[in-house]
Amino acid sequence: MCLPPTLGVILAGGLSRRMDGNDKALLSLAGRPLMDHVTGRLAPQCEGVILNANGDPSRFGRTSFPVIPDSIPDHPGPLAGILAALEWSAAHQPDIGWIVSVPADTPFIPMNLVLRLHRACSENRKLIACAASGSQVHFAVGLWPVSLRHDLRQALADQGMRSIRDWIGRHGHAEASWPVEPVDPFFNINTPEDFRHAKALVRQESVE
Q1: Total structural domains in the chain?
Q2: Dihedral sign (CA 162, 173, 86, 24)
Q3: Which of 44, 76, 130, 180 has its CA 20 to 30 A from that of 159?
Q4: C-alpha neighbours within 13 Å on the C-beta side of residue 186
Q5: Bridge partners, residue 48, by sequence
Q6: Is 158 annotated in some ligand binding site?
Q7: 73-98 burial, b for 16+ CB within 10 Å, e for fewer?
Q8: Is 24 annotated to bind ligand?
Q9: Per the annotation, does 194 bind a ligand?
Q10: 52 is in an annotated binding site
């Protein structure tokens, strides 16, 4: 399958309340910032990568990719990060028609994520595809057409919508599913306990 040009966005705009406000994207996992693990898996699948994060971008140091804030105020959630990426792509990469979003706290995303999301869209004739593992749909891990940016802005800014599930319910979506064994590829780090588990998984991978 020949993939359409796709821009990757790492969603790091959350407030990390359950991690005592620490910036999850910068947590050190196996000697590297968490976002480096995500980027290392996502970048080879995309035409480019951007980071959605609010606040002072200098805390990310000399990143090799743009850091873009939400374009809707007051931290309305991952939908705002998706919107920011869609609008950035339209303004700066007009030849790219799709973005794929991945939270910054998912260090084990599949290396065939973009391929399988595009395939799910094509086979099911949908504009949107989301990842799933086991019986859980991961709505923030998705493929989004840049053409829906105006619809999403209206939903967020004018209608106060905050749920990804609610928004894609208007358009329908396809799903691409992965097994959860031996490791759920969409394991995400929300708590200190999750972070300890991620460290154990990385050690296990290095041994195997």
Answers
A1: 1
A2: positive
A3: 130
A4: 23
A5: 7
A6: no
A7: eeebbbbbbbbbbbbbbbeebeebeb
A8: yes
A9: no
A10: yes
For the stretch 150-186, pLDDT in tens is 999 999 999 999 999 999 999 999 999 999 998 999 9
Residue 88: which of 101, 79, 99 has the closest Cα? 99
Flag whether 117 is marked binding: no
Q: If DSSP codes are grouped into helix, strand and coil, which group holds residue 3? A: coil
**CA atoms of 17 and 23, how far apart (whole Å):** 10
193 domain-assigned:
yes
Yes or no: say if 9 and 52 are a contact pair by the CB < 8 Å rule.
yes
Structure tokens at 152: 């999403």
Task: Report which residue type is found at 35.
Answer: M
Q: Looking at the whole model, is its pTM more than 0.85? A: yes
Provide the 3-class DSSP secondary structure of residue 107: coil
The identity of residue 53, as a single letter, is A
Domain containing 92 equals: 6-207
- DSSP structure string for 71-93: SSSS---HHHHHHHHHHHHHHH-
